Structure formats: C-alpha cells, structure tokens
Amino acid sequence: MRRLLGTLLVPAALLATATSALADTDRPRSGPEVVAHRGASADAPENTLAAADEALAQRADAVEVDVQRTADGHLVLVHDATLARTTDVARVFPTRALAPVGAFTLAELRRLDAGSWFSPAFAGERIPTLAEFGDRLGGRADLLIELKDPARYPGVEKEVGYEVDGRRGVVVQSFDHDAMRRFTEATPDVPAGWLFDGRPTAAELDDAAAHGVTQINPSFEVVDTALVAEVAARGMQTGTYTVDAPDDMRRIADAGVDRIITDRPAVLRTVLAG
Question: pTM of this prediction?
C-alpha cells in the first residue's frame, strides 16, 4: 500500500515498524536508547542512506534525521539551510551555491554528490527523500524526525504528520515550538519532542506538557539528574544531543536520560555495556 501526498508517493515501508522504542513510553528499559545522529555521521556522510546503513551496523535503536522540503514538494534529508557544506552544489549549480534547500527541485538535488565531501569512498552518494530513508531502515530501527526550519516550509508539519500518523516507531521534534504546537494539533497521536539549545525552564516544561509533548530534548551540556526528574515529574521523557565523548556518555547515562543522540552509536554501545 502507498499513501498519496500531493505528487509524493510514500512507500508503506517508511511507515511500518515492528516495535516502538521511541514512541512507547511504558516499555521496560535497561538503559538509555542509542540514537544515531543524522545516521552514524562520524563514519558516513550525514543524512544519507550510507549513514543509515552504518547506524544499523552499529546497532542503533533509532536514527535521527533532518527534514526539509524541495521546491516541488518532496520531503528530503538535509541539515543545513544551504547545500554548500555537504554537496558539490558549487560545481553543479555555480550561480546557486548558496541558495536555500527549498529553492531546488528533487530532480536538481538528484544531480548532487552528497558523499565526496566526507570521503572519496562515498562519492556519488545522493540526498535521500524521507521515504527512501525509511525504506532503508526497513523497521530495523526507529525514526526521530527533526523539522528543520519549518517556518521556511508552510504546512510541512501537516505533511510530515500525514506520512507518519497512526504508525509506531516515529517521533517528530523541532526547536520551533510553535511549529510543534501545530504538529500536535494536527497529529495528536504522533509522539512529539521539543528541542532546546539550553536548559528548559519550569514554565517551558509546563507548556510542553500542556501541549502533549512526549520528549524534552536539550543539549547534553545542560542535562543533569535534576532536569531528568523535572521532566519525568511532568510525564515526559528526556533525550539529549549530541554526545560523542565516552566520559560525557557515562555522565549522561548516569543522569538517567531515556535516550542519547550520538554521531558514534558503536562507541555509545560500548560505554553502556561497560
């Protein structure tokens, strides 16, 4: 079965997962979940199918990705506002090297090399759509979707929500809390996360809880046991980003967080097993 969204056909494999590590807040855990940041992005170019493969090889529980929208309405995985850092856009489209992601069609993005900047071994890697990335995971890991600069893409909250509504193993998050309020209003059954640059205040936590937020996901630099307890007292979970040093991984795990986002899932697995 395929679902139709405008001109975008979304394979059902994106939507179906066997279990839900991220979405099921009541499941038993022996430790924090391992979430691969943009895929296993220390070992493969971020937000690519190669990064998905590497995340699976490193036994990530879930994979975090950044979603933007093309000029012709396709949901694609790119982190930055432009394509300059992670593609050869300056060579392929020299007069548009600093144009925003949303100014390109999917066909134009298909022409870009999204792997060579990372290593010659990944030459020819392409920017995937959200559907393609979900297909690649194939239900073997859950999916944490960040709406990247959603104010640039009016209506993107509903589009992403339509794709994942009623399915397990998917959480949608953003730093744009207004966008997330719209998301939870449009798709109340899909778990939502609020990202924070700094330490959320009590008022912000109360606001999140009042809007049905499932996860509070601040920078690891502000996470401690007190914050984890404040979040839990409001019925939410704590995740944190982006934790790559073993000492930080140990400290954050000891603080009792529910999930850790890392560029290095295999390293985190080793730390958690120690």
Answer: 0.90
